[in-house]
Amino acid sequence: MSINWFKYSSPASFYPLAGSMIPWFTAAAVLFGLVGLYVSFFVAPLADWQQGQSYKIMFIHVPAAWMSMFIYVVMAFWAIVGMIFKTRLSFMMGSALAPTGAIFAFLGLWTGALWGKPTWGTYWVWDARLTSQLILFFLYIGYIALASAIEDPRRADRATGLLAIVGVVNVPIIYFSVKWWSTLHQGSSINFNPAGADQRALSMTDSMFVAMLLMTFCFWCYTIAVALYRVRCEMVEREKNNDWVQDLVKSGDA
Amino acid sequence: MKPRQKRLVFVAAGVVGIGIAATLVLFAFQQNMMFFFSPSQVAAKEAPVAKAFRLGGMVKEGSMQRVADGLTVAFTVTDNAEEVTVMYTGILPDLFKEGQGVVAQGKLDGAGVFIADEVLAKHDETYMPPEVAKALEQGKAAAAMQNVNQTTVIP
Fold first, then answer.
1. pLDDT (0 to 100) of residue B155
2. Distance between CA atoms of residues A216 and A64, nearest Å
3. How many domains does the structure of chain B reveal?
């Protein structure tokens, strides 16, 4: 069975598909969130050997930070697809993702500050990890500002697409910052290719890792649901003079 | 080439170009990206003299002392190669412990003692419940004992 992907690059045929996917992803986000929070609070150890109970903020902090990086990569991907194939829906996907990315970037910084005070003894330091994550947050804000500053949607798409592609170099910098430079932020607890005998693939208890994964899936599904919701609004708004939107309004489904 | 392929090449070239530019910039700023200097760098005179900088490393086991005024602490920061003595007056973070990571901000005085005005704790990326940490510690101690026994058995 082959799917004609180009069919869904047309807003007219993607609009109903997006609409039918939203409830499923919302339900999955709620489910993962409930199970994830239960495991975080009641199954994962009450305290960490060094940090005591304050380590529990990890279950929000790490998934939020991951999502903020991942969403930017997805935005850059859509920008590249949009520039090569000239599909207007791709750029709409990018701008639908940006606010959620900004929220997660902020959440990562904020929970990090609240976690830093009881453990490191400070809310904020200018080390490579924290600074590059702050830059990511500013990139999101810049993206949103740029999109709303340019009146003509096609010019706005080109400008924001360029920002997404240029800004994506920051994502590997954030991820590897704790490896490349000396930072106050600790290294990654999950090593994809552990080097040496003293480095394990996973340096946390399994139940902690499970809780973190469940929360990540929750954020993931939430992101997809709100991005689809937002892209539907964007489609209707941008294409309000097209036949398919006019038909939609007449049929009362919008 | 079709226009679509042309655009593909154009975008790919752009991404590669940005990547190279970013790499060069990061290499140029290598020193500035470091959050702290290690005791070895201090010993090699790479750290600034008569200027504030951050010193990072492990607090040496058994090195922490309280000075008579009750507020000032002295401890040794080590990277297992070189050592620097640090003096600090103020409240230490909760995670500050001997054998744990630390980052101190301050200046070197004439005698080579680091006078800190801020001390932050740096913890590692290992998370486990306290019972497991204790068990690991005991396991390590037992293994060490065994080693000692073995060496004593062999004549």
1. 43
2. 8
3. 2
B113 and B68 part of one domain = yes
Q: Which residues of A touch B117 (CB under 8 A)?
A: none
| Per-residue confidence (pLDDT) for residue B147, from 0 to 100 | 66
pLDDT value, residue A59: 95
- Average per-residue pLDDT for chain A: 90
pLDDT given at position A168: 94
Whether residues B57 and B111 share a domain: the answer is yes
The token pair that represents A169 in the structure block: 């170099």
Specify the amino acid at residue A7. Answer: K
Q: Which of A61-70, B38-47, B141-150 has the highest mean pLDDT?
A: A61-70
Long-range pairs, A10-16, Cβ under 8 A, ≥24: A10/A89, A11/A88, A11/A89, A11/A92, A11/A235, A11/A238, A11/A239, A11/A242, A11/A244, A12/A242, A12/A244, A14/A89, A14/A235, A15/A232, A15/A235, A15/A236, A15/A244, A15/A248
**Does one domain contain both B56 and B85?**
yes
Q: Which stretch of A44-48, B38-42, B49-53, B145-149 has the lowest confidence by average pLDDT?
A: B145-149
- pLDDT tens track for B3-33: 888 889 988 998 999 999 998 988 888 777 8
Residues B81 and B116 in one domain: yes
- Residues of chain B contacting residue A205, judged by C-beta atoms under 8 Å apart: 127-129, 132
**Chain B interface residues (partner A, CB cutoff 8 A):** 4, 7-8, 11, 14-15, 18-19, 22, 26, 30, 33-36, 38, 56, 92-96, 100, 103, 118-130, 132-134
H-only helix segments in B29-153? 30-33, 39-43, 130-153
**Neighboring chain B residues of A49 at a CB cutoff of 8 Å:** 127-130, 132-134
> Are B77 and B108 in a shared domain?
yes
